[in-house]
Structure formats: structure tokens, C-alpha cells
Amino acid sequence: MRVVSLNCGLPREVQWHGRIVTTGIFKEPVVGRVALRKLNLDGDRQADLAVHGGEAKAVYCYPLAHYDYWKMELPDLSLSMGMFGENFTTEGLLESTVFLGDRFSIGSAQVVVTQPRLPCYKLGVRFELNEMVKRFLVSARTGFYLAVAREGAVAAGDEIILTGREPNSVSVAEITRLYVTKKYSAGDLASARQTLSIAALPDSWKDYFHQRIRRSES
Length: 218
Fold this sequence. Notes:
Elements: E1 2-8, E2 12-16, E3 19-23, E4 28-29, E5 34-36, E6 59-63, H1 65-73, E7 88-91, E8 103-106, E9 109-116, H2 122-127, H3 132-139, E10 144-150, E11 152-154, E12 160-164, H4 172-180, H5 186-195, H6 203-217
Parallel strand pairs: 6-7
Antiparallel strand pairs: 1-4, 1-7, 2-3, 5-11, 6-10, 8-9, 8-12, 9-10
Helix pairs in contact: 5-6
């Protein structure tokens, strides 16, 4: 498991449907070692801090393997590293094998998996496709966010080493599936209840699953 590409970018203004949008989704590969701090990588910023960034979303990871899928889905587009707004384009990690609360060592930093990515309209801005947000979520190829447990320095090529896993955790893929499932089965309810005990899962997600559980039980 490794970081294939490390990508950073600062917010910029772009035109979208006749209006100016400020977004930090445009990322470019960075050469050399970069400081990873509690809120982000040096040289990387988010535009709308109400929904992006923060300690639980310090780093966004997207698997390199998904690029092949999107190249087939979007054959007319050139997909460079960082195209999905990810900070780390990763190899050897998938949503089905990465669990909430997983702890990794990358370079001299230590990170924790917190949540899947739920795309906003700015993904459509990046791809210049109105339907991109829906297609992204339906694909279940969401990538995932990391919090920084220990600040350090990271670079493309760094090995990603699993150092710990929460007992009774659930995968990133399962969290996404529970989020999009319209009606919960008994098994879904059990999985949703299980998420509530995961320390790394942000309170906003726990609040969402609390509501889903209450509605399903009523």
C-alpha cells in the first residue's frame, strides 16, 4: 500500500452556469516531501470550510484503481492525478477493505480513517458535468477522509502501513451503502447501530444514523 501521487491546490474562482464559484477541488501533483498538519497539507486549502476541511477531513484519499473505471465511463476526458480533488492518490486501499478508525503510518505522520466522501456540486464543476455527483455516489467509488493523529511529513511513494484497527468497526463501503439505502432491513439496522460505537466516525454521521434508526423502528 502506498501513496502514488500527493496532490495539493489552493482555492480558485471558476465560472459555472453563468456564475463565479470558488473551489479548492483543483489539485495538482506535488514533488518532494510536504508537511501534513492537523487541518491539511502545506500548500492545500479548502474554499468552503462549512462543508469541507476540518480535523476529520484533513486529507482526502482516492484509490488509483478507480481511475480505470472512470476512464471507461468518461472516455472523452483526460484524468490526471488529483482529478477527484484527492490529496493522496493511493494504491492497495479500497473502500471495501478500509475500515472506519483504521490507523495508518505514512511517512512520519500517523492518520485515522474517519468517513467516506459525500460529493457536492463542485465535483460537477471540476468535471464540467451536471450529473457527475450522482454518478460518483452511485458508483460507490467514494474514497475516504483521514484525520491527522500525529503531524509529520509525507511524499508520493511513501508506504501506507496499517498500525491498528478498531474492534467491531465497519468498512467505508458499508457506511456509504447504509447512507444511500432507502429502507433498512434488520441487518441494516444492526450495522447502523454498530456505527454509533465507532470513535472515529464524526458526530454528524452518528446523528444521521440515529435518525435513520429511529425512523426505521417507528
